Every structure is written in C-alpha cells, then in structure tokens.
Amino acid sequence: MFDWIRPRELRQQGMLSMNKRNIDYIARYNDRRAFPLVDNKLLTKQVVDEYEVASPSLLQVVREQHEIGHFREQVADLDGFAIKPAKGSGGKGILVITGREGENFLKPSGSRISLAEIERHLSNILAGLYSLGGSPDVAVIEALVRSEPRLSAYSHQGVPDIRIVVFKGYPVMAMLRLATQASDGKANLHQGAVGVGLDLATGQALNAVQFDRPISEHPDNGLRLSDIRIDNWRYLLGMASRCYEATGLGYMGVDLVVDETRGPLLLELNARPGLAIQIANGQGLLPRLHAVEALKRPHLTPEERVHWAMTEAGAEEIMQPRPPKTSFATALHA
Description:
Elements: H1 7-12, H2 18-29, H3 35-38, H4 41-48, E1 58-62, H5 68-74, E2 81-85, E3 95-97, E4 99-101, E5 104-106, E6 112-113, H6 115-126, E7 139-143, H7 149-152, E8 161-167, E9 170-178, E10 194-198, E11 205-210, E12 213-214, H8 233-247, E13 251-259, E14 263-270, H9 276-281, H10 286-293, H11 302-313, H12 328-333
C-alpha cells in the first residue's frame, strides 16, 4: 500500500523538485566550466587542499594499463586502501579493502578478493566502465578511511558519511548516511542505507528514514538514531563552506567522513546533489534557499556564512535577532 501526497502539498512544504533544482539552481548558479573539477576526484583533491580542506591520503594514481603491474608493489605492505574511478558517480566502481588473508584481500563484508581480481577491476576503471559517459578514466588509490568509532557503531560495515548541501557558500541542509545490510555496506540511500537528518545548529539527529520510510532504530544493530550528535559540527560546516571558494559552484553537495586519526575529511563534491536529503530531514529545501537568496549583503568568509546558518537554525550560543521575512528558522521548523 502506498502513501500518496499531492504536488500542491509538496510545494506547501517547500520541497525542491528535480526540475526546479536543475533549472533554478544547478543551471543558474553552477558554471559549467567548474563541472570537470568536481566530476574528477583527483582534480578535486588537488584544488580543495589549497583551501585547507583535508581529504584521504593519495597513495597512487593508475593512468595506463601497463601501470597496473606496479600496483602489486605499491600495496605489498598495505592492509587497507580504497580504489576509486576518478570520474565515477554514485559510488560506482569504488572498491574498499580493509584487510588481508594470505594472498587474498578482504572487503568490508569479510569476503575475499584476489590480486588478479583487483587488477581486473583497475583495468575496467581505465576502460571507463564506471565513468560518467563511459569515457576513459584513471584509478585513484587512497589510504583507507577508518571511521571514528562512535559514529562507526551506527553503520553496518561501511563508513558513515555526512552530506551537506551548500548554496552560495552557505550550508543549508545536512544528513548522515549509514550503511546497512540491505545497502551492502554502502552509504547509498537508494540501495537501502539509512538517512539521518541533522540539525544545522547543533549536528543533532532530527529524523531518520530508510527506503523513504521513517525509522527510529538502525535496522541491523538496533541503535537508537535520535541519540546521534556529530562532534566538531561547526568545523565540518566550515569545511563544506570553504569548498565554495575552492570550486566557485553555487549549488553543490559536500560529502565528508570523520576518520579516527585524521578527523574530518572530504570524500567528494557533487554538482548535482540528490533530493533525498529533504526526506531524511522531513523538511523542504526551498525556504532555506530562498532565505539565502533574500540576503542583501552576502557574507564574504566561510566563518561568517557558517555563523549565519547556525544562528538562523537556532544555535543557542550564537542566537541573534533576525528579520522574520528571511528567517531561516521559520523554514527549519515549519
């Protein structure tokens, strides 16, 4: 049995539709010349580093088929690493190795994979099997991200990540994505991962969904999702905001992880972020986007933009008076 909702009701709730996102935000605020930058993970790593946005350490780049033979030497002493197609999307083609067992490597699920299979995977990446438009690609090998234990406890096998939608440099909505058995250890909502909406003011869990249905506990470990609160929240928002200066993109998704030793790291940027974040938050994006557009004097630094966003979201320690017509809090609590 399906629960139906009228388009008019969605508009009243401020839900951003795909067509409106594409026309009014992506096409209007994203310079097409910046797309190759965020569509290529290798270029992204190089650019954001200049703006003090850390990312997983780069171990190797495989650009040509003949270089695959050197991969064996590069990973000889490594117990864990991640292989990613530079121009992949939606998590396609990402292979994560978390350990070794004899001559074989171990995936997060515990299943084994041989070196020959990994080399075949590298070959497929170079051939463009996972890239946008099927164009030839390069393989990026990064150090393994080992999630901060407190957050990792909420995720099944895979590393939990944080998606922050940034508009004109302002964080406007955020969610935590938790892997499940249904999603095969991947933080992909469409495959069955859990989406947890996060309060912009505090990083506290607001709402949680799986397969677009409200849930209160993680389906695999039974942990109560309302207990989640992200540490160093202001710092994470600042990282996301700095990506605006790094790329010039007016509307984007910033995906972050929290490593147990290095702290917050950038996974990737997305110039066409999906809309499921609205379902995870139980609120629409449009009122928040309109509030940013209504600003007569945009804030010039990431710190100022984060301060404004957190204030408008209701952070007690920085609460300030604000005009009601552009109130972000009204949009947040409608």
